[in-house]
Amino acid sequence: MSGDSVDPMIHEDALPGEERKLSPQPDWEPRYPGSGRLKDKVAIVTGADSGIGRAVAALYAREGADIAIFYLCEHEDAEKTKAIIEAEGRRAILVPGDLGDPEFAPKAVQKVIDTFGRLDILVNNAGEQHPDEDIRDISDEQLRRTFQTNIYAMFYLVQAARAHLNKGAAIVNCTSVTMYKGSEQLLDYSATKGAITAFTRSLSANLVEQGIRVNAVAPGPIWTPLNPFGGKAPEEIPEFGKDTPMGRPGQPNEVAPAFLFLACEDASYMTGQVLHPNGGVIVNG
């Protein structure tokens, strides 16, 4: 890592986690046939090796897009996502690396351009979280690392992608229900999600005259590797998502359609907005 950046915290816990080891397996499969809403588009999806990112990549591919899979180190999961995309008849490339490193984004985006020749959609989905009961337990390393992955990386990627995004392009960021209702054990994570929402609204105003739309999705509790592999206390996993009005966690393929809607022309009159697939939690959105 360069400068004051902190190396990925993949040794502190099991994060980012392997979807292939998760039981039960998350539902990533698109639920309906494609209709060409992203025909011949090119999308970067960060964190597309598993979870919401995989479901988004699969749905985008079904709708006609080629996908660049940005991920940290879960190579087997990433290879499966690549195979999923190719099974839909679309092209995919794997781009491993640390999104929190400012030197990664320019090289990674250039690889996308060299491979596909264009970029139409940037999905900033990757994130990390580390639960703490007491704010005094949040180390400086953890604090900086969480902000690097969750919000600094979005700045780096947008900066690198900006020259390649033309009128009609879309940026979709992943914030969280914790931005709106808080989380007593995820103080640093929730703070980054607040920053992401503010970033989304501000960037939308910055790019609207260029015809580039910027929106966000704020998922509630979704069954992905993020929580079972260190993002939540083990004893809390059996109750994960049961406090929502629907009484269960969501599945990645229940969130992916929100990312599709915001990326395609169906949302042509929306920018600076946030969608809330969260199991019925009413937020001041």
TrEMBL record:
Q: Which organism does this record belong to?
A: Sphingomonas xanthus
Under Gene Ontology molecular function, one entry of this record is:
oxidoreductase activity, acting on CH-OH group of donors
Biased composition regions of type Basic and acidic residues, renumbered to the chain: 9-22
Q: What is this protein called?
A: SDR family oxidoreductase
The record's similarity note reads:
Belongs to the short-chain dehydrogenases/reductases (SDR) family.
Q: Which Gene3D superfamilies match?
A: NAD(P)-binding Rossmann-like Domain
Q: What's the superkingdom here?
A: Bacteria
List, alphabetically, the SUPFAM superfamilies matched: NAD(P)-binding Rossmann-fold domains (SSF51735)
Keyword hit for Transcription regulation: no
Question: Region entry Disordered: which residue ranges?
Answer: 1-34
Q: Which UniProt keywords are present, listed alphabetically?
A: Oxidoreductase
